[in-house]
Amino acid sequence: MQTIKVKDYNDKKGVDFKKRLVEYWKTLQKTNMQYLFIVLFIQIINLILILLIIQNGHWAQYVWGFIVHLLILTIVVSFLMFKWLRKQKCILFMTVFVTPAVLLSFIIIVLLVGFKPSSEFPNHWRYSDNNFSRMATVDKFRVSEIELKYPVTFKMEVDDLKEAVDDWMRENGFNANPEPIIAKTPPLKASGDDVDIIGYSFSFSYFDFKTLFGMVNDLHIRVIECSDVWGGVKLEAHSNIRLGLKDYGTNIKFISSLYKYIEERTTKYNRSKLLCEDRS
C-alpha cells in the first residue's frame, strides 16, 4: 500500500482548489457574470453604511429595509454560487433589476451619510414644499393645525418641560442627549458666577422604511424660556427629511405626536394661551 505524505496531500489539495477556482472564473467569463463581484462588494458597503446611519436612530423602524438589503445580498451571492442560476433569463434579471438597485442604493446611502446635519437647532430655514415641518418662532411652516389644536407655550419650569420631552422620546424609542442652552452673560455679571441655563435642545435621527432605500428624518427639539410671556417656556420642534422632496407625512406626524403628548402630560394651569414671540 502506497503511503501519501501529508505535504504531498496538502500540495495536491491546493492544486485542486486553484484548478476549481480557475474553472469557476472561466465559467463566469462565459456568462459575463464576473462583474457580480463588484456588485457584491458594493452591496456589502451598503449594509455597513446603513448600520452607521441607524446606530443612533430608531433601529426597529428600518428592520424591513435592512431585510430587503440582506435579500439583495443573498441574491447576488446565489448567482455566484449556483450554476443553474446562470441562465439567460436570470442574467437578464440581474442586469435589469438587481444591479441598478444596488448602485442606486449606494449613491443614495452615501448622500444620506454625507448630509448629516449639525446638532444645533436650525434657524432661518429655507422653505421647500413637502420635505419638512417646523413649529418655531422663526420660520414656522406647515404647522397651522398644530398651533390651533395644541398649546406651544407653557407656564412651568424648564426642567419639568424637558423631563416631559425626555419621556416622549423614551416611549418612542428615540435617543438623544439634551444639550443645555446657556444665557448670554450680561456685561455686569461676574465671570466666576455659575452659568445660567435657560433651556435644552435635542437632536436625533429617525430611519424609516417609507421607500425601498429608506428615509432619514432629522428632528430638532428646543425647550427654552420665553422672555415676553411671564413665567413662560416655549417648545419648538423642527423635522425634515435628509434627502428628497417628499416626506410622506412623517415630519408633521412626529411634531403632532410630541405636542399631543405634552398636552396630555400638563394641566390647563400649565398651558398658556399666549404665543411666545421671543426670537431667541
From TrEMBL:
- This protein's source sits in the domain of life called Eukaryota
Tell me where the transmembrane regions lie. Answer: 35-55, 61-82, 91-115
Keyword line: Membrane, Transmembrane, Transmembrane helix
Its name, as the record gives it, is DUF1499 domain-containing protein
Natural source organism: Euplotes crassus
